[in-house]
Structures are given as C-alpha cells and as structure tokens.
Amino acid sequence: MVVIKEYRIVNNLTVEEYQVAQLYAVAQSSKNETGGGEGVEVQKNEPYDNEHGKGQYTYKVYHLASRLPSFISKLAPASSLMLHEEAWNGYPHCKTVLTSPFMGDKFKIVYETMHVADRGTNENALNAPKDVLKKRQVVKIDVANDKPDKYKADEDPSIFKSEKTGRGPLKGDWQKTCEPVMTCYKLVTAEFVWFGLQTLVESFIHKAVHNLFINFHRQLFCWTDQWYGMTIEDIRALEAKTAQDLEELRKQGEVVTAAK
After folding, report:
1. Is residue 131 part of a domain?
2. What is the DSSP string of the chain?
3. Which residue range(s) make up the domain with 110?
4. pLDDT tens sequence for the chain (260 residues)
5. Considering the entire predicted model, what is its pTM?
6. Among 55, 198, 225, 239, which lies 20 to 30 A Cα-Cα from 46?
7. For residue 86, what is the domain's CATH number?
C-alpha cells in the first residue's frame, strides 16, 4: 500500500519571499552535503514551457552510498546507490519526482507542493482527488519547536532574530500570530515495491522526509539575512556558480553529512 502524507509547514515570510529563500537554501545546503565522491550533481537547470506549464526544470543526481541505511546498501552495488531527481518549479506550484535507476519502477517518491499565504488551515490546497484524501495523513511541522535530527544553535528559529527584517525569535503560538505568514503544503507519495521490505522502507522514507523538511525550513528561516533582498536573477547566477562548485566538491575532500 502506497503511503501518502501531506506535510504543512508554516513560515514567517511572504509567498514571494519564500520562492527566493527556498532556492537560496537549496543551493547552500547542497554544498554542505557534497564531498568525497558523494553529494549533488546538477545535470540540468533550465526554463521550461510545456504540458507542465511554465517554470524552471532541474535534473539532479544524488550520490548517496554512505547515507542510506545498511539494509539497503547490502542489497545493491555501490555504483547503483544514487537517486535521480526531476523537478518542475512552476511557482507557487512545484512537482518533484525521485527515482532510482537500480530499482526501476519499484521505487518512486513524488511530492507536489503548493505555497499559500495562510496559516496551514486549507484542507485541500493541492486539489487532491477524494481517493487520495482518504489515504492522506496530515503532518503539521512547527519549525521553531519540532526537534531536528541534529540540533544546531545557529539554525534554531526559537532564538534567531533577523537584523534585516526584525523577524524572530519564533516563540509560543507564533504560527497563529506572526506576520507575514505563508504555508508550504507538500503532498508526498512514497512507493517501494520489494517483498518483505516495503513497509520498512516506506516508513524510513517518510521519517527521512519529515526530518529533511524540519531541518531545511529551520535553516531557511535562520538564513533570512543572507537571502533577504536577493532577486530571482541573483538566484539563477548563484545556482550556476553552485553547480560548478558542487562538481569540484564532489571530486575532493570528505563527505559532509549536514541535513538539508
């Protein structure tokens, strides 16, 4: 049975700001996770205008041999321990598909995201059909109070205060009172078809996704003074430079396991 969860992440910024903040944070965290032959390889990053609409298309390969659980590593050759990611960023709607060449059609993670100027109260922000809504589990994430897998004081929204915007620290019922405010609605479908391991791996996938969303959005808020004021043009230039840096980092040094 495919596991479907909808993650709702409230953020103390506008929908327009989040577009820049997200892209900045993806570029920075990718560098933190790359080195020693592993990490992120950006193969394509280009505009699209097709059946998916208009936006930015990216194709990335994640080299992850040392980051997968041992029971998966033992099943596959090291050369096959990688994920391929295709993403269509037609902001405010985005779609990402993760696949594995080794697993073929037995493995897929799909997440669709809608960014909305609200406090996480929309019960169907992605217009999911009724059969999906029946299976969906809603998971609300509080970036200030939910515990990350690895705590870092400089990535803690409950103590961070932005010098440029005056936002933060995020305390108490901040999600109900903060201004500005927006929510990321992420509908995640995880499918792993392998007899005897399906339930275990799908559970692992959603645990990893949950941790990723917590860590990433804590970083995003605490990096406010780095991305605030940047334009999309600034971000595209940063992404081009980051792609070059990632290729160099992947060929040298030790693997760094910071979470995105």
Report:
1. yes
2. --EEEEEEEEESS-HHHHHHHHHHHHHHHHHHT-BTTBEEEEEEEEEEEETTEEEEEEEEEEE-GGGS-HHHHTTS-GGG-EEEEEEEEETTEEEEEEE-TTTGGGEEEEEEEEEESSSS--TTTT---HHHHHH-EEEEE-TTTSPPSS--GGG-TTT---TTT------TTHHHH-SS-EEEEEEEEEEE--TTTHHHHHHHHHHHHHHHHHHHHHHHHHTHHHHTT--HHHHHHHHHHHHHHHHHHHTSS-------
3. 3-236
4. 688 999 999 999 999 999 999 999 999 888 766 555 567 788 999 999 987 689 999 999 887 654 454 544 455 555 456 889 999 999 999 999 999 887 788 889 999 999 999 999 999 999 999 999 999 999 999 999 998 989 999 999 999 999 999 999 999 999 999 999 999 999 999 888 776 666 677 778 888 899 999 999 999 999 999 999 999 999 999 999 988 887 787 676 554 444 33
5. 0.87
6. 225
7. 3.30.530.20
The sheet carrying 82-90 orders its strands as 39-50, 53-63, 82-90, 93-99, 107-116, 182-192, 3-11, 137-141
Which residue has 């990688």 as its token pair? 82
Choose among 125, 121, 118: nearest CA to 182.
Answer: 118
Tokens matching residue 159:
């103590």
Q: Would residue 133 count as lying in a domain? A: yes
